[in-house]
Design brief:
The complex is a heterotrimer of chains A (363), B (268) and C (217). Helix content of chain A is 39%, strand content 18%. In chain A, helix 13 links the parallel strand 11 and strand 12. In chain A, helix 4 crosses helix 6. The longest helix of chain B has 33 residues. Chain B is elongated. Chain B starts with 31 loop residues before the first helix and ends in a 5-residue tail after the last helix. By secondary structure, chain C is an all-alpha fold. Chain C is 81% helix and 0% strand. In chain C, helix 5 crosses helix 7. The chains are: A alpha/beta (363), B mainly alpha (268), C mainly alpha (217). Chains B and C meet through helix 5, helix 8, helix 9 and helix 10 of B and helix 2, helix 3, helix 5, helix 7 and helix 8 of C.
Chain lengths: 363, 268, 217
């Protein structure tokens, strides 16, 4: 996905809208136990919020209530402060992008027809749709001349997923809902998609709700993460940093601890990934400043960050500054380490599961 | 001229002529109620017919035509035509289907079915009349025409039924030292029976339907009553003939369904 | 032996040609109406198992009824000629169309439907833009089977003065032994068979033209 993402205001709607859920409850007919019970949360405009939790916890149901694919039994959903639980669901859905794991591209329509479908429903003029389709294809890294007239089955899984994202964003919706969108792709493609999507989201500034059961994905993508338990109960709603540093209960810490990303934190030293743009080497430090030693693990570095500092300088044994670290820098370090592992070992699956199973990592 | 396709089977998707392979009807779905509905309906129709005919004052022509003897003759000859044609169809189509599904002859089967499908486009009534012109009026040309017309469903379902058997099963039987004949009779045919029976039912319904046309070549059947009614311009007569033909078709379909349930090998 | 079939065709073409057109009109009319009715019924019942079962059973019972009997029963309410013929042929054509419409619509992936709803399609738009196009190859196969059957039954409809080439068959039959009777039956029978095969071929063309390239393997 390239970064030619300027000039995207194709509609008169705002770039992003905040979402408020208030006591949202879903009880399916004939079932006594609610699938989702009294969920309240506030999703700031432009944030990427990940719902993460075990399968069957109701995270998808919660998400689907936002575009009313599932009608809430009770509770209120506000989009940009406006109650959307009443009114026409079809109009609502047309201003909410939607991407699901099976992608849901229409096999009988070409790529351009798929991407242009929502603008077409919104009654955009033909020329504007065509222009927008080309623009969206460029944004997600698909050459329009090559792909526009193809059918979904002629594309690889990763390419199809890009089309799915392009279709969801085509009408420039202020909100995007994504249900395990990268779940069906292979690990390398997935990692690429995750990184590209993260960048795209930062460029576009859309409000995104992203559902996954993969904690790594949550850590990688989320501005905020909502760890959900049974009936979509919010166990913890926090930044990735907060989640790793201050797990609300054993449940969350087990979740966090099982994560390869988090395990990698304990393997990588601060010195090996210190970012010189955050603190120039040789900078003089105020006496008593919070620093980390080059041999400190990233996990311990995170602890320092939780103490309040946004950037911690990394120093060598003699106290000389090597560079600095902040949360995004640590995140980048983990991601590139993951990528290196998956590219080098050749058995990608094992990186995820194997490491978690063997206690080779200090904890 | 009726083709029974009452089970939602896999629809033909390819570019071959539409292959109406009848699927065996699932027995587990059909309880006693389902088996009792058709005869109840048939009896109800007959009662209504009887009441209607008797509520009218029949003129002398109607009385002469709607006599028990004439009706019984028509019913019996209709049944006779249907039974003879069906038996001949089974005797021809099943062995032919078996032959066409042997490993050495398998390649001919699609060709054969293709030609048979093309032949199916030729209307039954035209075939019947032509055969009569060539062979003289009466039962023989009618039977030949109906046999020619009804062979395809049994033939097709026999071939399909035999071909869809898991090859591993046949391998296993070979491995146990079965002779080819033993494999055919102990493994292949029993497994193909449900599909074959579905074809037989289709053929039966088809035959009982076209047998109404036998009257056009003076070969009898319920068509006699219908045509008599039309020629005499007597409504009660033609309606009686038509309703009896409908009831007979429904009854034959019902009996064939029961036969399908009863004759299906128990393990399947 | 009467005159050869070619002499007959040559001499009588003025009388045969209108029947050919009648036959084509009859089948085209019946199939368009049958398709509208059968597909509509399929669309209405496909996700209601009981109604779907009822629709298929009813269509199946109709197909069991001998065509001569049904046509004759239609004389009192509908008279002779086109009307009872068209109604009967439409009824006979229903089962393959309804069945395949149901099968085709049921074959559309649930995720696809959710996706269509999720991006803001109304039910109607979803039906015409997603469900029917995806089910279309299967529906088309049903229409093709129906068309072949309709040709066969239409020959018998000529007995109640229905239109088409079946008239030649019955004329030949009524003049059994006369000079041209055999030729009439031959031309009637083969005429219907050839037209049936032509229509069958048209379905391949129709498939080529109307089924999205994205669905062709």
């Amino acid at each position: 996905m390239s970064d030619s993402t300027k000039s995207l205001s194709h509609s008169d709607q705002p770039t992003a809208l905040g979402i408020e859920l208030e006591n949202l409850t879903k009880i399916y007919p004939g079932l006594s136990i609610p699938a989702v019970e009294k969920v309240s949360m506030n999703i700031p405009a432009g944030d990427l919020v990940v719902f993460v939790g075990p399968s069957g916890c109701g995270k998808t149901t919660t998400m689907k209530m936002i575009n009313r694919l599932v009608e809430p039994t009770s509770g209120v959903i506000r989009l940009g402060g406006r109650d959307v639980t009443t009114g026409n669901p079809v109009d609502l859905r047309r201003q909410i992008g939607y991407v699901i794991q099976s992608i849901g591209l229409f096999p009988h329509l070409t790529i351009e027809e798929n991407i242009g479908e929502v603008p077409k429903m919104l009654g955009w003029p033909k020329g504007k749709i065509a222009e927008r389709v080309r623009e969206m294809m460029a944004i997600v890294g698909l050459e329009p001349g090559q792909f526009a007239r193809r059918y979904p089955r002629q594309l690889s899984g990763g390419q199809q997923q890009r089309v799915g994202v392009a279709r969801a964003l085509a009408a420039d919706p202020p909100v995007l809902l994504m249900d395990e969108p990268f779940g069906a792709t292979d690990p390398i493609t997935r990692l690429n998609m995750q990184r590209e999507f993260r960048k795209l989201q930062q460029d576009l500034g859309k409000t995104v709700i992203f559902v996954t059961h993969d904690f790594e994905e949550a850590l990688l993508l989320g501005d905020r993460i909502a760890v959900l338990g049974d009936r979509s109960r919010i166990v913890q709603y926090d930044t990735p940093l907060g989640l790793v540093g201050r797990p609300a209960d054993e449940h969350v810490s087990a979740f966090v601890g099982a994560s390869v990303h988090v395990r990698l934190l304990g393997l990588i030293t601060a010195g090996s990934v210190a970012d010189t743009s955050l603190a120039a080497p040789g900078t003089r430090l105020v006496p008593g400043a919070v620093t980390v030693d080059a041999t400190t693990t990233l996990r311990d570095t995170l602890d320092r960050l939780l103490g309040g500092a946004t950037v911690v300088p990394v120093v060598d044994a003699t106290g000389k500054v090597l560079g600095g670290l902040d949360y995004p820098a640590i995140q980048r370090a983990i991601v590139s380490q993951m990528a290196a592992l998956e590219h080098n070992t050749g058995y990608q699956g094992a990186v995820r599961t194997g490491v978690a199973r063997q206690p080779v990592v200090a904890s | 001229m009726t083709i029974s396709l009452d089970k939602p089977g896999p629809p033909p998707l390819d570019d071959h002529p539409p292959a109406q392979v009848m699927e065996p009807s699932p027995s587990h779905r059909r309880g006693l109620i389902h088996l009792l509905w058709p005869p109840a309906g048939i009896i109800a129709i007959l009662v209504v017919l009887w009441l209607w005919v008797h509520s009218r004052t029949l003129d002398s022509i109607e009385q002469r035509t709607l006599n028990p003897q004439f009706i019984t003759d028509a019913v019996l000859s209709h049944l006779k035509i249907t039974v003879i044609a069906t038996v001949l169809i089974l005797v021809i189509a099943i062995p032919l289907g078996v032959i066409l599904s042997r490993p050495s002859t398998r390649w001919i089967a699609p060709l054969f079915l293709g030609i048979a499908n093309l032949g199916q486009a030729f209307p039954a009534i035209a075939l019947l009349v032509l055969l009569t012109m060539w062979l003289d009026i009466g039962l023989t040309p009618a039977i030949i025409a109906f046999v020619a017309y009804g062979v395809l469903p049994v033939l097709r379902n026999t071939i399909v039924g035999l071909q869809q058997i898991d090859k591993g099963l046949i391998e296993a039987a070979k491995g146990m030292g079965f002779t080819p004949a033993r494999i055919l009779f102990r493994v292949e045919l029993p497994l193909a029976v449900p599909t074959m029976l579905a074809g037989v039912r289709t053929t039966l319904v088809l035959t009982v339907g076209v047998a109404t046309l036998a009257t056009f070549v003076s070969a009898g059947g319920l068509g006699d009553i219908i045509v008599a009614g039309l020629k005499l311009n007597r409504l009660p007569v033609e309606v009686t003939g038509a309703v009896l033909a409908v009831c007979m078709a429904l009854a034959v379909d019902w009996l064939a369904r029961i036969a399908e349930d009863v004759l299906r090998p128990k393990g399947l | 032996m009467g005159p050869s079939i070619w002499t007959y065709l040559d001499k009588q073409w003025v009388r045969i040609e209108p029947l050919v057109w009648q036959q084509i009109e009859l089948i085209a009319l019946c199939m368009v109406l049958s398709a509208l009715i059968g597909i509509s019924v399929g669309v209405l019942v496909w996700d209601r198992p009981k109604l779907a079962g009822a629709a298929q059973s009813t269509a199946s019972v109709i197909l069991t009824i001998p065509s001569l009997a049904l046509l004759v029963l239609f004389i009192p309410p509908f008279g002779l000629g086109w009307l009872p013929t068209v109604i009967a042929l439409i009824l006979y054509a229903q089962l393959p169309i309804i069945r395949n419409t149901i099968t085709g619509l049921r074959g559309v992936d649930a995720g696809m439907l959710e996706s269509a709803t999720g991006i803001g399609m109304t039910r109607t738009r979803r039906l015409f833009r997603v469900q029917l196009p995806l089910a279309w190859p299967v529906i088309l196969a049903g229409l093709r089977v129906s068309t072949m059957m309709t040709f066969g039954i239409s020959a018998i409809a000529s007995y109640i003065n229905g239109p088409g080439l079946g008239n030649l068959v019955f004329t030949g039959l009524s003049r059994l032994g006369s000079a041209n009777s055999e030729n009439q039956v031959l031309v009637g029978g083969f005429g219907i068979a050839i037209l049936a095969l032509v229509f069958d071929g048209l379905f391949l063309v129709l498939r080529r033209v109307t089924v999205s390239g994205g669905l062709r393997v």
